[in-house]
What does this fold into?
Amino acid sequence: MRNDRNSFIFRLLLTLFVILVINFFLPRMMPGDPFSTTSDDDSGDEVIIMTEEQRQYYMNYYGLDKPVHEQFLVYLKNLLKADLGRSIYYKMPVSDVIMLHLPWTMFIVLASTVISTIAGVILGTFSAKNRKKGSDRIMMTGLIAFAEIPSFLLGLIMLLIFSVHLRLFPLAGAITPFAHYSGLGEQLWDILYHACLPVMTLSLAQLTGVYLLTRNTLITVTTKDYIRTARAKGLGEKTVWTRHALRNALLPVVTRAGFMIGIMMGGVVLVESVFSYPGIGMTLRSAVVGRDYPLIQGILLVIAVSILICNLLVDKIYSKLDPRVTI
Amino acid sequence: MNKNRLLVLFSTFLISLILMTAGCVDQESTQNSITASDMDAGSEKVDVVRLSGGDYGYPQPFSIYPRGPGSSKVGMIFDCLVERSDTGIVPWLAESWETSSDGMEYTFHLREGVSWSDGEPLTASDVKFTFDYEQENIPVSGGIEDGVVDSVQVLDDTTVKFILTQPVSTFLYEMTGFKVIPKHIYEAIDDPTSFLDPEAVTGTGPFLLEEYNKEHGTYRFVTNENFWGSETAVEAVEFVPVSDELISFEQGEIDFTRISPDTLERFTSDPDVRVAQQPAFWGYQFYFNMNKCTELSDKKIRQAFVYAIDREELVEKIGRGAGKTGEMGILPVDHIWYNSDQPEYAYNPDKAGELLDEAGWTDTDGDGIRDKDGEKLSYILSLGSSEVRIGELIKERLDEVGIDVQVKALESKSRDANLNTGDFELAISGFGGWGRDADYLRTRYCDTNSGAGSVASGAAIFGYHNDTLNALGTKELQELDDEKRKEIVYEMQTVLAEDIPTIPLYYTTKYDAWRISTYDGWVSAYDHHAKTHCIFSYLERD
It folds into this structure.
C-alpha cells in the first residue's frame, strides 16, 4: 500500500517535470522573440518596432540573453519559491495576470460543464427510453448535426441573434464598463448576465457528446441481465431506470465531464475572443502572439495542473460511484 | 444519494467561484480618484465619446504595451515639446525654439504657467530629467535614440538646450514622441515598468486618467481642468471592450469605427454617419533577398518583377478597391514629400519578358520556367498567413512571365524572424508608418548606418547597396533647411524608383465612420492615418 502511494507520487512528480520541460522549451523553440516584430497584425494596426538597442536592453532586463539551460534553472528555482516570473507583455507578475483572468475562464468552463452534463443526461435518458421512436431519431439527427458547428461560429450566431437582433444580452465583456454597484446582488446579476451567452455557447458545443454517451451506454446497460432481474423482481419502471440503469450508465459520463474540462480549456480561447470575454484563453492567445515566454509557461502550467487535478477528482468520484474501483 | 451529493458539490463549487470573480471585480475599483470638476455651464461640450478598447497597459511611457494603440493613450496625459498636427510640426510645451547654424544645438523656450496635474509647475529641469532618466530606463516608444543627443542643459526655468552629437535633420520630428515626465515623481522610481501607482500618470496633457481596468480592458479619461492649452472638445473619452467594432458601432456602444469597403454601403445612406477615407499610410512590401539569390542584384530582373506584378489588380481584388497602388519611389501618394515625377511602372508583362531576355534568362527547355546556365528562375515566397491571397495572385502573374514561385505561408512572427535573419528568398510583409518623416528612405535602403534611425520601420534589405543613394541619404540627414531637404528626398525617390530595392505592393486606405450627432471633431495628424490617435481630435480648434 505504502509502495503504491510512493510510486503514485513519483509518477505525479515525473509528469509534472515533463510538463515543466515542455512548457519551458516549446515556446522558446518558436521562431522569433518578444522584441523583434517588424510587421503589423492587421492592416491599419501598428506595432511599435524596436531599435536594436531597445531590443538588447529588454533582452537583458528579462534575462533572455543568458544561455537557455541557465534560464531553465532560474525558472525552476523561482518556481520552488512559487514565483512564476514576470510577464513581458503585461509587465507584471505572471501569477497576478493569471489570477486576474483565470477565475473568469473557470467560471464559464465549469458552469457550462455542469449545464451540458445535466442537460445531456436528461436528453440522453429520454432518447434511450424512446429508442427507435420518432422523437429519438429526430433528437439524435438534430444534435449530431448541431455538434458539427464549430464553437466560435456558434458563438457568432448566438451573438447575432440574441445581442444584435433581440438585444437581450450584452455584446462583449464580462461586466458593464465603469459600473459602480450598489450591492453584491446587483454585481452578481451583472456578471451572470454577461456570462450567459458564452456559457450557453460552450454548453451547446459540449451537449451532443454527453447526450450520445448517455444514450448509448443506457441502451447497452438496459440489455444487461441485472436489468432483466430488476424488472423480474417487479420493480417499477422508474426505479429500474434511475437506480439500476442510469447509475451504471453515469460512470463514463462523469469520466467524460472530468476530461471535458481539460479539452474545453483549449476550446474556450475561440469563444472568449468572440465575446471579448476577459478569460485566460484570450490572455494565452496574446501571450503566444507576443512571445511572452513567462506568461505562456505560467498559463500552460496552470492548465496542466488543473487537468491533473480534474483527473484525480474523476478517479475519486469514480470510486464513490462504483465501489469496485480503487485507486 | 451519490448523484445528489455530486450535484451539491458541483453547485457549491460554482457558487464559490462566482463569488470569487465578484470579489476580483470589487478589488479593482477605481485606480484614480481625481474626479472632473463641474463643467462650464455655457459650453456645448460633448459629455463622452466611446471608443473601442481593450487592455493596452497602464498609460505611462514605460508600462504601456508595445502593440496596438497604446502610446496614443499615453499622449492624452503626457505632452511633448512639439506636436504633430494635421499640417505639420507645431509648438506644444515649447512655445518656440532656435537651432544653431551648425544644427548641433536646439534651444527650446517652454510655455509659462504650465503645471502638472498635481499642481507642481513644469520647469526646464523636468525636460532634462526626462532625457537623463530615459538613458537608463528606455520608454516603450518615443525615446530619443542612443547617440543622437549628447547632453541636455537647463539654461533657466523655461529654457532648455539639447546638444546633439551630429546634425540630425529628423531631430524635431523625433521630439514629437518625447513625452516629458514629472521629475518630482519619477526621480524616486528605480523600475518605472512596474510603477503603476496613480501618481505615475501625472502629466501636463489635456486629460486625466480617471479609471483604468486591466482585466476588462477599459479606460476612462476626463478633462484636465488645468490644461494649459485650448479647451477639450469632449469632457471624457472612454475605451470599452467590443467583440466586433462594426456591430458595436451599429448598436451605438461606440461612436467611431474603422470599416471595410464591403460594409461601406450600410452607412452611405445614413445622414448621421460621416464616412471618410484614411490616408494611405499602411502598406504591403515585397522583399528581395539579394544575398541569398545573387541574380536579383541585377536591376533588370527586379524591374521585370514590377512590370509583371499587377498592382492595380491587387488593390481591386485583395483590397477591394480601398487602397492605392505602390509607388516605386516608396513614399505613398499621400505623403507630404511624395514626388510625382518619378519612373512609372504600369503592369506590362511583355516588357517584363523583354527585360528578362536582356538579362539572359530564357526558357531553354520549354518547361515554362526561365533559366540561365542550368539554373532556374524559381523562388520561395515567404509570407504571413493573412497575405496568402496576395501571394497567390503574384504567383500567377509571375508564372506568366516565366518566373516560378512557391508560396510559403508562415505565422507572422516566424516570417518576421526570417525577415530579420535573412532566411528567405522573396517575402511579403505589411506594416504601418509610411506617412512618417521621409528619413525612413535612408534607414531602410542605405547601408551607411550613420547613427540615427529611429523612424525606421520594416525590415532591412539584404544585399542591397547603392552609392548614389547612400550619398543622398547622408546629405538628407544633415540638411537642416526643409526646402533643400525636400529636394534631396525627391531625388532619393527617383533613384529608388529606378533601382527597385523593394516593391511596395499597395497601401491600404480603410474607411472611418463616426456618428455626427455624438461628436464630429475627428482629424488625423499629417503623418498618420488614425484619427483616434491624434490629440487634436479631442481639442477645440479655431
Q: What stands out?
A: Residues 301 and 356 of chain B are 6 Å apart (CA to CA). The first strand of chain B starts at residue 46 and ends at 52.
